[in-house]
Amino acid sequence: MITRRIGLLGGSFNPAHDGHRDISLMALEKLALDAVWWLVTPGNPLKEKSIYAPFSERMKQARAVADHADIVVSDFENRHGLQYTVDTLERLQTLNPDMRFVWLMGADSLENFHLWRDWRRITNAVPIAVFNRPGYEADALASTAGKTLAPLRLEDQDADRLADADPPVWIFFKDADNPASSTALRRRQADPK
After folding, report:
1. Which DSSP category does 21 fall into?
2. H helices then E strands: how many in the chain?
3. Quick one: three-class SS letters along 97-143?
């Protein structure tokens, strides 16, 4: 049985932007992945529901931004009625025993990772790749999760081993530097001066 290595980038993609695409392309290359799946969530329990564009609009826009044969935009969570990453990972692993998954996230997510439901179970379920965002590195690495996971961190030169490593294990890519932000894009759209 051939094992495929899949990066999972979850989020609201509200809206999707080139930062999502950039870290996906970086993950494909540095982690030697076969594909990256964008898991467009129907809603993040840590965010206000009123900020969301309609789900179908976010899916359509994410597909336009992804624009790469190895980036798959998925409505998996919506189809399966899932809201929490820990449940999504469990379902994906059950349905795809022939795949090795790596969770992808930005440094801003690492900063708040300890607030996610069962975040320690997530770290024990899959390897994690964190991509720096300008202005977030110090706070992300000093966060509860950053400090807790520090002893489990791989060096950059071992990135191509991450997908095959047994969790808990993670890597932090300091050289990711795309400043794009969905929040900033929404603000610009609301006030286009």
Report:
1. H
2. 9, 6
3. CCEEEEEEEEHHHHHCHHHCCCHHHHHHHCCEEEECCCCCHHHHHHC
Long-range contacts of 148-156 (CB under 8 A, 24+ apart): 148/114, 149/123, 152/123, 156/30
Strands 128-131, 71-74: pairing kind: unpaired
Site of tokens 């009625």: 81
What phi-psi label fits residue 145: left (phi over 0), alpha (psi between -120 and 50 degrees) or beta? alpha
How many angstroms separate the CA atoms of 162 and 87, rounded?
Answer: 22
pLDDT digits (tens, 9 = 90+) for 30-53: 999 999 999 999 977 767 777 789
Is-above-0.85 flag for pTM? yes
Euclidean distance between CA atoms 56 and 67, whole angstroms? 17
What span, in angstroms and rounded, lies between the C-alpha atoms of 171 and 177?
A: 16
Report how far residue 153's alpha carbon sits from residue 161's, in angstroms, rounded to the nearest whole number.
12
103 forms beta bridges with 8, 128
